[in-house]
């Protein structure tokens, strides 16, 4: 049986931008994410274009890559169950968007007991770990 992973924004951005470091193994797993990821990735690409980090042609190419990346994943909607879980309390500060990613992963994990949440963001990793999820991708400083 293939393993199942949940990919958050930071993990997807690393893939899309071909950044160095450990990467989510989407080519060897069943990958899931939230419908929020498309918006997050498109806003990131637009910020990079506005900052002159992406020329117009490169921006268009990255948008196509973004579509292919999303097409390779099962995209979960942000429904009432996700909103309810995202509203649950944490004993530390968690941003709205991070709580939505973690809550969506919680919903997926209910059907996939061995789910791994892939992130490169320590804040998402802390929130996910607090909710009992297995986290991969956060690199510790040596």
Written description of the protein model:
- The longest helix is centred in the middle third of the chain and has 16 residues, at 56-71.
- With 142 residues, the chain is α/β, with parallel strands linked by helices.
- The protein has a single domain, classed as 3-Layer(aba) Sandwich (Rossmann fold), CATH 3.40.50.
- The radius of gyration is 15 Å and the shape is globular.
- Helix 4 crosses helix 5 (96-111) and helix 5 (96-111) packs across helix 6.
- It contains 6 helices and 5 strands.
- It has a 5-stranded parallel beta sheet, sandwiched between helices.
- Strand 1 (4-7), helix 1 and strand 2 form a beta-alpha-beta unit.
- It has helices at residues 9-16, 36-50, 56-71, 80-87, 96-111, 122-130; strands at residues 4-7, 30-34, 74-76, 116-118, 134-136.
- 51% of the residues lie in helices and 13% in strands.
Describe this protein with a few key phrases.
142 residues, alpha/beta, Rossmann fold, 6 helices, 5 strands
């Amino acid at each position: 049986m293939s393993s199942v992973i949940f990919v958050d924004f930071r993990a997807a951005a690393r893939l899309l931008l071909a950044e160095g470091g450990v990467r989510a193994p989407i080519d060897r797993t069943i990958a899931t994410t939230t419908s929020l990821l498309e918006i997050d990735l498109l806003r990131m690409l637009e910020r990079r274009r506005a900052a002159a980090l992406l020329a117009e042609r490169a921006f268009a190419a990255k948008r196509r890559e973004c579509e292919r990346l999303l097409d390779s994943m099962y995209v979960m909607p942000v429904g009432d169950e996700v909103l309810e879980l995202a509203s649950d309390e944490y004993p530390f500060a968690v941003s709205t968007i991070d709580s939505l990613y973690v809550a969506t992963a919680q919903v997926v994990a209910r059907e996939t007991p061995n789910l791994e949440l892939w992130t490169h963001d320590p804040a998402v990793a802390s929130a996910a770990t607090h909710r009992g999820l297995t986290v991969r991708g956060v690199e510790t400083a040596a």
